[in-house]
Write a structure and sequence with these properties.
With 460 residues, the chain is α/β, with parallel strands linked by helices. Helices cover 39% and strands 17% of the residues. It is built from 16 helices and 15 strands. The longest helix has 24 residues.
Length: 460
Amino acid sequence: MAKPTIILATSNGVGMGHLARTTAVALALKEVANPIIVSMAGGIAETPAFLDIRCEYIPGRDRLWMPREKWDIYVRDRLLALIDETDAKVLTFDGVVPYPGVFATRIKNKNISLVWIRRGLWQRNLLRFVLPLYSRTMDLVIEPGDFARAFDFGPTSKRKDAVLTSPVSLFNSRHAFTREDARKVLGLDVNRPVVLVQLGTGESDVNAKMAAALEGLLGWKDLQVVLTKAPIAKDGSSLAPSTLDLKVIRYFPLAQVLRAFDASICATGYNGVHELLPAQIPTVFVSNIRGTDDQEARARWCQESGFALRADQNNLSDITETVRRLQDKATREQLAAKCLELPATSGGAEIAGILSALALQGRPVNRKLFTRFLRTVIYVGIRRITLIYRHLNPHTTMQTVHFEPPVFGDSTKVEDLRELLKSPTRFEHLIAGASDSYRIRREEIANAAYDDLKERGEKQ
């Protein structure tokens, strides 16, 4: 029997959590299905070469490549075209809430099963009021487990509409590099201590947290500091003390080289916690309070359970002092030993099993007429609300957009994809090995979405 195709879509979240979970599921699916990852996250550039599976990038609405009112239809048509091209049986979405264009796919194609992979630990924000409606539009909801689920008192915690699995992690002790090999891969001195810092930069408060954390590393003899992003403020000034030995790296998946590090400083996102702790990396968590994820609840659980240190994200002095505690070898050994007590992170394989079984059914699990009607109503309502909201609160322009005909390409090379995704020229990414008919359909979708292309054609 031929393997079924399953499309795994992700939003562009604050961090890499959505894409990391999806990558873990895709790896587990490879034995039983043909997974395809579709993502709005820039990290998708790293994925094809690592996974050896087909991937596509879809520009997020914040890139402003097209009029906002066109974007949901563009996403819907992109997904429908990919479903037709690959004969996919299941479409999953890992994101805070599904975009209207995602569940519109299910309205147009009644033979696809739509699954929402919905992380728990939500903060109590306005989205909790529409949570039941979004859940009702799905054929299935899956909640990846969370180490800190006991501290989850948010709007998803009492719901019974999701299948709960074990936590999902990209870290695999059997496949991860040894300490020495990981350091060689990253170009690090194998004999000196190394700390990984993943806090990000951008807004002034985030920059201040980064600077406070790096200050806590001063005095650690022979230390090497590895960052995933240069510690530079928007004005070009450095956030790091000049005496630190810094190295900025890009490596995907980072989980594969985590044994290179003696300690880490990280935001308390889902993938950070579920990769660093299983890898037994002594960690200070500094929460990011933006978005829907309740990172503070997860950080409190980590600290109170003894698996990590938590710094008060509101107190820069506390961040510095808590990070300084990592310099104590006994503290690091105690944290690393405690992490051996953590439960298994087999959620990726569990979700893969659920999705492959659903694909082999050959038909959606939810065909009720009322649900189909509800999807349509929610699509129209949510889409209108989001358009009004964005009219009143437009996206901040992040980069200049070159309004020229888009570049089409199916490259799987990391450097090529990075450059194309960063470029101000609009990029229409195609899965490797796409048919001519798919290319033609994609050109039609682009022409419909990019108003300037239509206007240019009318003038010719």
